[in-house]
Design goal:
Blueprint: H1 2-9, E1 15-20, H2 25-41, E2 46-51, H3 56-61, E3 69-74, E4 77-83, H4 88-98
Parallel strand pairs: 1-2
Antiparallel strand pairs: 1-3, 3-4
Domain Thioredoxin: 1-99
Protein name: Thioredoxin family protein
Family: Belongs to the thioredoxin family.
């Protein structure tokens, strides 16, 4: 996963990573928000989900201490990272800034 993850975040297009856990209720809320963000942003950005229980080393590498944690990468660079649930409009605008 680590090699594949590097390929994904090295994209010219912004990539929003959703670090989540299947048992996390706020993560389920965030997931439905991200579906709408994807509709809004279209091909302008990618949205990838990473289960922290399946990939704990990846979560640790990027300092994920709570879920959900969202991070935006472009050209391999971490541009933004925040924990907690975020709304559709904030995330759509954020991704448009980096697109």
């Amino acid at each position: 996963m680590s090699q594949k993850f590097q390929e994904i975040i090295n994209s010219e297009r912004p990539v929003l990573i959703d670090f989540f856990a299947t048992w996390c209720q706020p993560c389920k809320v965030q997931s439905s928000v991200l579906n709408t963000v994807k509709e809004n942003i279209g091909e302008g950005a990618r949205i990838i989900k990473v289960d922290v229980d399946q990939y704990p080393a990846l979560a640790a590498q990027y300092g994920v201490r709570g879920v959900p944690t969202l991070a935006i990468f472009k050209n391999g660079e971490l541009l933004w990272k925040e924990s907690g649930v975020h709304d559709v409009n904030s995330l759509t605008e954020l991704l448009k800034q980096y697109a």
